[in-house]
Design brief:
The complex is a heterodimer of chains A (117) and B (110). Chain A has strands at residues 4-7, 10-13, 19-25, 31-38, 42-51, 54-57, 64-70, 73-78, 87-94, 107-108, 112-116. Chain A has 117 residues and is mainly beta. In chain A, strand 5 (42-51) and strand 6 form a beta hairpin. With 110 residues, chain B is mostly beta strands. Chain B has strands at 4-6, 11-14, 19-25, 33-38, 44-49, 55-57, 60-65, 70-75, 84-91, 98-100, 104-109. In chain B, the strands form two sheets. In chain B, strands 2, 4, 5, 9, 10 and 11 form a six-stranded mixed sheet that branches. A five-stranded antiparallel sheet of chain B has the order 1-3-8-7-6, with no helix packed on it. Chain B is globular. Classes of the chains: A mainly beta (117), B mainly beta (110).
Chain lengths: 117, 110
Amino acid sequence: DAGITQSPRHKVTETGTPVTLRCHQTENHRYMYWYRQDPGHGLRLIHYSYGVKDTDKGEVSDGYSVSRSKTEDFLLTLESATSSQTSVYFCAISGGQGAAFGTDTQYFGPGTRLTVL
Amino acid sequence: RKEVEQDPGPFNVPEGATVAFNCTYSNSASQSFFWYRQDCRKEPKLLMSVYSSGNEDGRFTAQLNRASQYISLLIRDSKLSDSATYLCVVANQAGTALIFGKGTTLSVSS
């Protein structure tokens, strides 16, 4: 299994509070992604990173921000959590040797279950 | 047409059965295709990439039909451990991201 960890694994928070989720990888992969998964929607891309300090928006980025200050860490912040952000959040990585951005095999972390009350 | 469309199932089959899943996609220019497997409350894991010539990995066979924009996954001799949700994945039009289908649920019973 790819060396990807996410923290926390579970979190319950209240509406209006900021929340930060962390993704840590030990594979030295260049690209990192944040997805959310909800019933009836499947996996949807929130933000992605194609290098240190290089990030961009995905399909459902409103209400989320990201930062990547080093290769191994990719942080997802919910600036002011809302109930609609209750979801399972997955981090993914790709970009082994010769890999193309965006379309190469992605490896997923174990996920974070976030509940916003 | 939705970007990636799958029959959600569930498919309920007995052990030893052969089962096939289909997936259609809208991006005719896509160059990358995958099947992922996701167990309940777990992360998605790569099952296999899908190549134009078709490919096989043990009991699993994937086929790609570019003309019809159609991908299939065939599972032979189903095992209880094959019970999971199978996600069809296709690169987006710009080639910058993967688009995941909502998944097809398989339940194999003894």
